[in-house]
Amino acid sequence: MGNDGEGIGKYQGYTLFVKNALVxxxxxxxxxxxxxxxxxxxxxxxxxxxxxxxxPKCKIAFQCGGCTLQHLDYEEQLRRKQKxxxxxxxxxxxxxxxxxxxxxxxxxxxxxxxxxxxxPVGIKNGKLAIGFYAGGSHTIIDTENxxxxxxxxxxxIRCVRSFLEEERISIYNEETHEGLIRHIxxxxxxxxxxxxxxxIINGNDLPGKEKLVNKLKDIKGMTSISLNIxxxxxxxxxxxxxxxxxxxxxxxxxxxxxxFRISPLSFYQVNPVQTRVLYEKALEFAGLEGNETVWxxxxxxxxxxxxxxxxxxxVYGVEIIPQAIEDARENARINGIENAEFFIGAAEEVLPExxxxxxxxxDVIVVDPPRKGCAESLLDTIVLMAPKKxxxxxxxxxxxxxxxxxxxxxxxxxxxxxxxxxFGHTGHVETVCQLCSKYSS
Length: 441
Description:
Shape: globular
Radius of gyration: 23 Å
Mean pLDDT: 94
Structural class: alpha/beta
Order of helices and strands: EEEEHEEEEHEEHEEEEHEHEHEHEHEHEE
């Protein structure tokens, strides 16, 4: 199986990638695109199903581009994700022994786990369509239900749909750049129950907005209703300007004991239950006793930083997005955390600069990079700073393997690995690794 959950099979020695096919399936396919050594095919018929094939819970699972593995038994999903992490550490990292691979932590219920949804709005066959994009396209699959999004979205979409139809609000057309309504953004606080709705519009205001507010505010938990202004001809969903309509300009939620204030523009982990599992494991791997100085690189809105601050003497967070750092500082304030400090800038620039000019020190360095992994200049600085421990949180096993190879060749030993399933029914897996310096007592 491929990185995105597609089945990889061979016909007369020629490799084909087939969406919705599983290991163990015998299938009939229609070849859509051929390259020299491989091609892409569409699943036509499952002649003999894999023993791991199950009926998807969602009726549009095979059309939608969100869930790529709902037809694969969940325990088998977990087994494959664990194997994917192990393979990347051994094959790309060159590390085959000396570490403990702990059993992957899956979800108790791998449904309705996402606290954020972005619904595209369009016209399909002359009718209003609200739902999700089909895989690899901008064709909207019209639906009110999603088995991995918060259940509250069903009531929200029904309200917005009826408002748009009753008021005959114009719908955005990507090709002509005309029409008003582009997307609907929702967020749900899983601990607090607070709900946010934000309509993304190609204009300055929404006609009949009072009627929409009156429909939405009756939904239990509704806390924030706003507009987001995006008049650019772009695939980027959100613009920079928020226009409040009703309630607070944010909602609040908790990960563990840490409270977070979340606006429409805030970055916040979409699976708060598994995020807590992941971050508590990162905190465990850091092994803090209260006297340590910790640097948290790619810190976002400070989620890991604020977890670490409860056990460390001092935590420094680095993030390139100014809005995220503003949120991190505000989140530290509302939690009464005074031993966390945040810097705006690229981690691969800030850390080398601080080390070169100020000779900063770290007992523990935590990295949580994007899918491309850590820049080599950042890894070099980490090695020069010589922290006793490095905790690496990864969303991509391939770049994790590459970076572990680099660190292990420069004095760090991989000790523990924990995979966490944060995105059930997709091919993605999160991993947290503990590395210890060979030269520390």
